[in-house]
Design goal:
The complex is a heterotrimer. Chain A is an alpha/beta fold. Chain A is built from eleven helices and 13 strands. Chains in contact: A-C, B-C.
Chain lengths: ~300, ~250, ~325
């Protein structure tokens, strides 16, 4: 579990992180979102004890990073997969890491197996593809069997198989009861990866909630209805005070109702349904809605022509 | 003409060419100034003023090689070929810009060295540019810089890597050409056909060797006349450059 | 329009692209997908005339790229945002490109404005973040107002706003009637961006079709059903369709093999109230994994094949 309490970081006159408080629960994958310059990296660096907060604190399982006896056994982080000497083998890289933390060589074989690199353990890391480097980085993060894991843009540069693998891997770590905090700009990917979200903008907390809640709260939820008696059903729904819009393909879009109510009304009126699907907004829509004011940098949505 | 402007923008919008040019001028003129200020006993000859041009030549060749290799290093060569896919015309435009510029730097360094010697030497009676040979000793530096730049462009385009191209050029000019002289029997015969050795004959040589004052320059060796020597050096540069064009055209970018 | 016919590229004994034929239509965003090492980058490089095909050809609007006179007016491409001299300013980088194709300096300012880099135009490109480099690359692609645009991983390094911006931008370019060809590994992003897909694996064409059709062909559609009389409905469906409980264990049924209208009619005929009846489409990711299984070069359990088909030094990004 990670707890930030009134966390603040100033660089000169710039306030990078401003009185930020949130908690990251174990057993869930928590996404860490925010526009560029929102303070995500600074926050992650403070969690790892790399930057010192100007005010407030961040605790890992109740202790600050500096108080941790063997920090790498508590927190593992993958911030940049390229921090490996290119001429050293994957195994040698992990062996020296393990040694430096008083971990056994057996653990090296275990983590290599865990990330699926056993067969290439003796090859030089410089010849690894980005996906393999990423796995090696994760193996390093897992060496100390930490309870808390941080990932910064973990799917960057990975191919679809690598993306799927890392998503499932992070969910597996969470299912083991670990605390997993992932920062990413890829919202469509985060929507299928993270159960919880911590969203910040301009260094301040914008929202902390489950992903589902986050999306439901800030987007309009509608229900799509298709029926051979769409006219009749539409009139019945309008009578009940729902806003009904008829789409080009003859289906109805109903706002202000949950699908259960519509189903009840249809059944009561003996109307056959061909579709009754709740339409949820996307994480992207929700995110844009909530962070609209805190984006530092706007590219103009100008016209394309000359 | 537009492609010349393109290459001009490319060359002058980064800092390393400026540094190379300043260094080339500073080295040649600076060292000449020290020599000239300490030249006593005898009147300073014209050759004494251009003695240092080889320092500048190596720097300018590095600049020329960089003009190609940095394009490969940073991938801009792909943007270049994307913009002008026939590949040959941007390479020629680059050569025109780099060669002209190198020639100008050569002239500036030679006349700069000569002018400063005129001011600093105790006795500048021999420094006056009176004969065609005197002019060649000084103005010829511009031609050697230009041809050297063309050679370096060719090597750069063939090798594509800065470290590789620069080492080839410097090791060849500074080490290989002197070392071949030590090969028994045939060493001297090979050495006198080495391009940089021949190029220095163009600067230092004289149709009448007795006209060169003692200690006024390195011994000018070679079979060719001074202008023949330049034609030989420029010819080698051109051949390597043309080979590089053919390779660049065929190779994957 | 881009057309590849029997396009083949060998690097030594490695076959990077193998007899590949496809066409990319104008007026649509076409996604170019494939696992690492499938030959996507090599193909894009051949389209731009940077690599020479071993066999076959690829044309842009009917012409070889290398025969185009002022190609930036025809094709704009962003293959690698890092292809910029780090000590050159953003503006100087665009200026030399513009000059080479007789594009006026005014257009440089326009594209800088378009991608939102006007304020940093004079800063050296080496100090740019990945997102800013990406915008600079996009600006370069737009310089000649070309009819054909190619992007390799355009959202790399962009933040959510930038990602949304580039997606909407590509849609607008296609709506203008331009040909937009985008390669990406981010399938959830491509599902929202691309109308058509070209999928390759091990250098060979796996599929060329619309995104919708691609997903339909490779995944099974299901229907999610909730009802206060769920057990009754389950009995009625028994024998007519395959029924399972939803994975989320939220009291919904997942029905395979029938249309939602069939279930709706069945429910109505038997007086069953429905609370949800949603057709569930497969994801592009599922479809992609299904179809490229055979051709993925690197498997976690089988890492021996992890080779890169390219010679070292001249090819930076894996394809």
């Amino acid at each position: 579990m990670i707890e930030a309490i009134g966390l603040t970081k100033r660089y000169g006159k710039t306030v990078a992180v401003d009185d930020l408080s949130f908690t990251v629960e174990p057993g869930r994958v928590t996404g860490f979102l925010g526009p560029n310059g929102a303070g995500k990296s600074t926050t992650m660096r403070m969690i790892l004890g790399l930057d010192r907060p100007s005010a407030g604190k961040v605790l890992i399982d109740g202790q600050s990073y500096a108080q941790l006896d063997r920090p790498l056994r508590t927190v593992g982080a993958l911030l940049d997969a390229k921090w490996v000497h290119p001429n050293r083998s994957a195994k040698a890289h992990l062996l020296w890491l393990a040694k430096s933390n008083g971990l056994s060589a057996k653990r090296v074989d275990e983590v290599l197996d865990l990330v699926g690199l056993t067969k290439v353990a003796k090859r030089r890391a410089g010849g690894f593809s980005l996906g393999m480097s990423q796995r090696l980085g994760i193996a390093g993060a897992l060496l100390g069997d930490p309870k808390v894991l941080l990932f910064d843009e973990p799917v960057n540069g990975l191919d679809p198989e690598g993306i799927l693998w890392i998503r499932q891997f992070m969910q597996g770590l969470a299912a083991d009861g670990r605390t997993v905090l992932v920062s990413s700009h890829l919202l469509s990917e985060m929507a299928v990866t993270a159960q919880d979200l911590v969203v910040i903008g301009r260094g301040k907390l914008i929202s902390q909630s489950s992903t589902t809640e986050f999306v439901e709260r800030s987007t309009e939820n509608t229900v799509r209805v298709r029926s051979p008696h769409a006219d009749k059903l539409g009139a019945m729904l309008a009578d009940k005070g729902f806003t009904v819009r008829e789409d080009e393909d003859g289906s109805l879009t109903v706002s202000g109702a949950v699908s259960d109510e519509i189903g009840d009304i249809a059944a009561a009126g003996g109307v056959v349904l061909h579709e009754l699907s709740p339409q949820r907004g996307s994480l992207e829509q929700a995110f844009m809605q909530l962070t609209g004011d805190s984006v530092e940098y706007h590219a103009e949505l100008a016209e394309t022509g000359k | 003409m537009t492609l010349l402007a393109v290459e001009r923008i490319k060359l002058f919008s980064t800092r390393s060419p400026w540094w190379c040019m300043l260094l080339a001028l500073g080295l040649t003129i600076g060292v000449t100034a020290i020599i000239a200020a300490n030249w006593d006993n005898a009147p300073m000859p014209v050759l004494g003023a251009v003695f240092t041009h080889t320092f500048g030549l190596y720097v300018i060749m590095v600049m020329a090689a960089l003009a190609v290799t940095t394009e490969y290093r940073f991938g801009t060569i792909k943007s270049t070929f994307q913009a002008v896919p026939d590949r040959i015309s941007p390479m020629i435009a680059k050569a025109v810009v780099v060669v002209l510029l190198s020639g100008l730097v050569g002239l500036a360094s030679a006349f700069g060295s000569w002018g400063l010697s005129w001011v600093l030497a105790d006795d500048n009676s021999e420094l006056a540019l009176t004969t065609a040979n005197d002019w060649r000793h000084v103005a010829g530096v511009g031609l050697v810089f230009a041809a050297g730049a063309l050679l370096a462009l060719g090597v750069g385009a063939l090798v594509r890597q800065t470290a590789g191209a620069v080492s080839i050029i410097l090791v060849f000019a500074l080490v290989v050409e002197s070392v071949v002289g030590f090969i028994p029997n045939i060493g001297d015969d090979i050495q006198k056909w080495m391009p940089f050795t021949v190029a220095s004959k163009f600067i230092f040589g004289d149709p009448d060797p007795s006209a060169i004052p003692e200690g006024a320059g390195p011994p000018a060796i070679g079979e060719l006349s001074p202008w023949g020597s330049f034609a030989y050096f420029a010819g080698i540069a051109l051949v390597i450059y043309v080979i590089s064009l053919v390779v660049v055209k065929r190779r994957d970018a | 329009m881009i057309e590849a016919t029997g396009l083949t590229k060998h690097y030594g004994r490695t076959v990077a692209v193998d007899d590949l034929s496809f066409s990319v239509e104008a007026g649509r965003v076409t996604g170019f997908l494939g696992p690492n090492g499938a030959g996507k980058s090599t193909t894009m490089r051949m389209i731009l005339g940077l690599d020479n095909p071993t066999r076959g050809r690829v044309t842009v609007d009917g012409k070889d790229y290398r025969s185009l006179h002022k190609p930036l007016h025809v094709v704009g491409a962003l293959l690698d945002a890092k292809w910029v001299h780090p000590n050159r300013s953003a503006r100087a980088h665009l200026q030399w490109m513009a000059r080479s194709n007789d594009i006026p300096d005014k257009r440089v300012d326009e594209v800088l404005d378009l991608v939102g880099l006007t304020q940093v135009a004079k800063r050296r490109a080496g100090g740019f973040s990945l997102g800013m480099s990406q915008r600079l690359g996009i600006a370069g692609a737009l310089l000649g107002d070309p009819k054909v645009l190619m992007f390799d991983e355009p959202v790399n390094g962009l933040d959510p706003e930038g990602i949304l911006w580039i997606r909407q931008f590509m849609h607008r370019l296609a709506d203008d009637g331009r040909t937009v060809f985008v390669s990406s590994h981010l399938l959830s992003e491509m599902a929202q961006t691309a109308q058509d897909l070209i999928v390759i694996g091990r250098g060979k064409l796996i599929s060329q079709t619309s995104t919708e059709q691609f997903i339909k062909d490779a995944t099974e559609d299901t229907v999610r059903v909730r009802s206060p009389q769920l057990e009754r409905l389950r009995e009625l469906l028994d024998g007519r369709a395959r029924v399972a409980d939803a994975a989320a264990a939220d009291g919904a049924l997942v029905v395979h093999g029938v249309e939602p209208s069939f279930i709706g009619e069945l429910a109505a005929a038997n007086g069953i109230t429905l609370h949800e009846l949603s057709p569930q489409l497969g994801s592009l990711e599922e479809a992609f994994m299904q179809l490229t299984k055979e051709s993925v070069e690197y498997h976690a359990a089988d890492a021996d094949q992890a080779t890169d088909a390219r010679p070292i030094g001249s090819h930076e990004s894996a394809g």
